[in-house]
Amino acid sequence: MPKKDPGSFKENLKIKRKKIVSDIKVKSRTVGKRLSTDNIFPLVCLAPSLLGVLIFFLVPFIVIIFYSVVDNPINKEFVFLDNYISIVKNSAFIRASGNTMLFSLTAVPLAVVLSLFLAMLLDYKLPLVSTFRTFFLSPLMVPIASVVLIWQVVFHLNGTLNQIIEHFGGSAVDWLKSDYGLYVVAILFLWKNLGYNMVLFLAAIQSIPKDLLEVATLEGAGAFYKFFFIKLRYLSPSILFVGIMSLISSFKVFRETYLLTGDYPYSRLYLLQHFMNNTFRSLDYQKLSSAAILMGIVMVIIIGVLFFIENRFGGELEDE
Amino acid sequence: MLTLFAGLSALIFLLPTVLTVTNSFMAESEINANYGTVFGTAESGSKIFMSDKLNLKLIPDMVTFSQYITVLFKSPDYLFKFWNSVILTAPIVIFQLVTAAGAAYAFAKLRGKLWNVLFFIYLIIMLMPYQVTLVPNYLVADTFGLLDTRWSIILPGIFTPFAVYIISKIMRRIPKSLNEAAKLDGASEPQIFLHIYLPLCKSAFASVAILVFIDNWNMVEQPLIMFSDSSRYPLSVFLSQINSGEIGLAFAVAVIYMLPAIFIFLYGEEYLVEGIAYQSGVKG
Fold this sequence. Notes:
The structure holds two protein chains of two kinds.
Chain A lengths: L3 H28 L1 H36 L13 H8 L1 H33 L5 H13 L2 H12 L4 H8 L13 H26 L3 H9 L4 H29 L2 H8 L10 H11 L2 H35 L1
Helix pairs in contact in A: 1-2, 2-13, 3-13, 4-8, 4-10, 4-12, 5-8, 6-11, 8-10, 10-13
Chain B lengths: L1 H22 L4 H12 L26 H9 L2 H33 L3 H15 L2 H14 L7 H8 L3 H10 L4 H9 L4 H12 L1 H16 L3 H6 L8 H4 L8 H33 L5
């Protein structure tokens, strides 16, 4: 390892400390002495967490940005975008990001729509609603590793699902070793996350002003109108939020995939985390850091765009 | 009609869990007969009879505790792996909450551009997937010689900003007037923190603890990268590596593994639901 890291980390800490001190000074000058003593305690409270975030996330992130633009950790010759260009051309990376993207594009919208549907369903005054909620939420708490055995039995070539299909005259499919594998993982993903999303939507639905819906009913609005023109608009921030959370969990679907299929899955199931694992094994820092930074940038852009869309959509609501 | 539909789908959600539990009461021979083919790849010349077709069964032919007895008394390996899971998860949950309590208070109190920017940075880190954050985490672990030790997972786990973010959101909703009133009564800052802010956020702590627990109890990505020695793997990773010789134990281990999570769920479902609902304040 180069000696650079602890050095830059200390420097960064110094800058941070200076900033904090100067911030206190500015505040005490403007607002008077009382506030500055008031600020000291929160700063003391913040210190452990801030120190940890600096050491384990922020400073190494900066080092990684540095690694991603040099040729190797020893030479440190500036090569600008070369590492990024080679990672974008890397066939394994293309396959992994393609599969991950395909998965997220299929699973995230489904996760949003189906959980909204479930929440609407439970919002009708059904009996046993809280029991249903518990059932829907239970997969969130059950460790994946525990139930993965059952899933393996269901989706095996000679497994339960194929037996059912053959019973009705269809032909067996080797679910996990074919292009269908992605759908199997999507089902597991939905099974695990729908309950969580549903709870988010339930909370949002209950905060829609009741009188608004009553007035709409009095004026003869149908269920369809009420859903699309009243409920959906009030739910738009939640839809965005559920979308973001589902997107983040869709990146964690490696867990299910790994537990189901191990280190070397069928190529359709080769995800970004598989790629990262393999790259870690060869410990190619240039590849690792440029891949991580690239993914980070893409995540920020996607989330930024989602917020932007929601801001415009939600903005309309406030004008009325 | 709607109830029936909701009930049916709810049952489907519950089914895999129930199947795992009921199958854990099967004798080894029955499991071999039913599921041998799934796990049979490692030892093809096995003496045990294996049927070609897998036979997913809800009710065992004969209820037996033999799996549990083997796991608990005869094969300590699994208990060690269980302990690996505990020793990784518990410190992360406890210390993430402790450090987050202070940091959340600070972010609720401090006003100014610098703190808003810093809070935004926390949010960005929180939203990053493992594929991104594991690289910096690995770099630090490598630099400080923490690779292949538990600290390489525990320390980044502790400082993951998730708890800070959620609890701070809730602390910001505590009315300023409460703060002012306490100050007039002569309360110092630490007293306000300990006697007003912390007690008011009790349920928030409980729900965050549940969410942090379940995420780390399930960890797969970190051990695969930080540990080269598979004996350190927690049960979450190890369970998938069970092979044909041990399938008789698989379901019992799976059940033992899910028990803590199930208990926490049954005991704290309200907190969990509340905690999930809190999160939706991500924008404000």
